[in-house]
Design goal:
With 155 residues, this protein is mainly beta. It has a single domain (2-145), classed as Beta Barrel (Hypothetical Protein Pfu-838710-001). Helices cover 13% and strands 46% of the residues. A hairpin with a 2-residue loop joins strand 2 (23-33) and strand 3.
């Protein structure tokens, strides 16, 4: 079970953060429906296939498996209509890790922070660069962002 909260990032404050080296990510969807998605992700020198179920609040079923990078790239070229490109920064915070995605290409200007929890009621600290929560807003799901021609902030 994936239990995740997602937030917009304050870009001015984010620029001031001492960041570790980010990881380049390219991802695409083989299936992208309201109740399930199948994602292929290449993350630096690793690749994964992930099956996700329908989101219920901030939780959903998730199954992820490492696959050969060459297979992932071939599946993306054969079966994906478009891709998302981003750099991911892992920022430790107490017992959790913030995953901050700085989007590239058509989504340049979008920066999202996610924190994966052990249960829906976990308490955690909000760094000063964390902005508005968008956990239950479907506009901010990567599976929906992939269809945008360019990033424009959703109000």
């Amino acid at each position: 079970m994936e239990i995740e909260r997602k937030f917009l990032v304050n870009l001015e404050r984010w620029k001031q953060v001492d960041k570790p080296k980010g990881k380049e990510i390219i991802q695409a969807y083989l299936t992208n429906e309201i109740d399930k998605s199948i994602r292929i992700r290449v993350k630096d020198d690793q690749a994964f296939i992930t099956v996700k179920g329908k989101q219920r609040g901030i939780s959903r079923h998730e199954f992820e498996y490492e696959i050969p990078v060459s297979d992932a790239k071939e599946m993306i070229s054969l079966f994906a209509d478009s891709t998302i490109e981003k750099v991911r920064y892992d920022i430790p915070s107490n017992q959790f890790v913030w995953e901050v995605d700085v989007f590239k290409g058509k989504l340049t200007g979008l920066v999202l922070a996610e924190i994966e929890l052990t249960n829906e009621h976990d308490l955690f600290d909000l760094p000063n660069w964390v902005g508005q929560e968008v956990s239950t807003d479907p506009n901010y799901l990567n599976a929906n962002l992939i269809h945008l021609d360019k990033w424009e902030k959703v109000d």
